[in-house]
Amino acid sequence: MILAITHEGDEEATPVLEALARRGAEVAVLDLGELPGRAALALRYGGVGGPTSLRLASGRVVRAEAVEAVWWRRTRPFVLHPGLSSRDAGFAERQTSEAVEGFFASLPARFVNDPWRDRVASHKPLQLAAAEAVGLAVPATLITNDPDQARAFVAGLAGAPIIHKALHATPVDWHPTRLLEGAERDRLDAVRLAPVILQAYVPGVDVRVLAVGPHLFAAEIDARRSRVPEDFREVYQDCPVRPVELPDGVAAGLRAVMTRLGLAYGAFDLRRRDDGAHLFLEVNPSGLWRFVEERTGQPITEAIATLLLGR
């Protein structure tokens, strides 16, 4: 059995679940938002009768011993009882988290991705350090909440364009990558309120690389003529997208980053300059692939299904 951790709002999950069904795989889907009120765990030790199991909101029971692979795709926060006080809700959330994490940590299953490695790998400072360590080119970057360091970084680039972006975001507080322009350069004192990523802007074409196990599916996304060439995510539907080949050294570097971060799946974002150099920007352990597959015909969905099946 394959246990998929996702929810009905994750449109990327549906094609993979359908591919697994076509191959005859037994699949169960858990939305973490169903815990603790609608789904339930039973972890048994010391000879207590019955198996360690998970009861889904549908009533279906998943025995831990039957789970061969876990697809840790997209999670939602636990939904706690609305009648709990803030203190009791905090307690309930911690207890639910401990039980859920303990359940998954004890499964002798394949993970795509392991939830703990997925969480750690999401940290952008770690990603940049890993990329540099394996020899990938990285733009000049400063992460700081020190206004003096921020001003020195900006001055050191002598008027060259700089982008700023968040270290972490949720759907509620997501911010696009933007150029540091005009009055923003005069408001660098604000970084003392929260750290920010400042990075030399790299002119060129975006390259998204979907790493699925050992396979790399690369596509260029040309946002240079769009209204926001610094962040294709807002305009990718209007940008030319086509499959590309990666230089051997870049491909080897991306695989090495995957190994260092302990990932089985990752969506890399690179920038290719006009001189052909590829610079590493970041990797999203649960990043989107469908728009690349639909525009290029690359069999990414089937590759994910194959990876989950262990074939």
Strand and helix map with partners:
Blueprint: E1 2-5, H1 13-22, E2 27-30, E3 40-42, E4 53-55, E5 61-63, E6 69-72, H2 86-105, E7 110-112, H3 115-121, H4 124-133, E8 141-144, H5 147-156, E9 162-165, E10 178-179, E11 196-200, E12 205-212, E13 215-221, E14 241-243, H6 248-261, E15 265-272, E16 278-284, H7 290-296, H8 300-309
Parallel strand pairs: 1-2, 1-6, 6-7
Antiparallel strand pairs: 3-4, 4-5, 8-11, 9-10, 9-11, 12-13, 12-15, 13-14, 15-16
How does this structure look, described?
Helix 1 (13-22) crosses helix 8 (300-309). The mean pLDDT is 93. By secondary structure, this protein is of the alpha+beta class. A hairpin with a 2-residue loop joins strand 12 and strand 13. It has helices at residues 13-22, 86-105, 115-121, 124-133, 147-156, 248-261, 290-296, 300-309, and strands at 2-5, 27-30, 40-42, 53-55, 61-63, 69-72, 110-112, 141-144, 162-165, 178-179, 196-200, 205-212, 215-221, 241-243, 265-272, 278-284. It has 8 helices and 16 strands. It folds into 3 domains: 2-112, Rossmann fold (3-Layer(aba) Sandwich), CATH 3.40.50; 120-138 and 202-309, D-amino Acid Aminotransferase, Chain A, domain 1 (2-Layer Sandwich), CATH 3.30.470; 141-200, Dna Ligase, domain 1 (2-Layer Sandwich). The protein has a 5-stranded antiparallel sheet. A 4-stranded parallel sheet has the order 2-1-6-7, covered by helices on one side. The radius of gyration is 22 Å and the shape is globular.
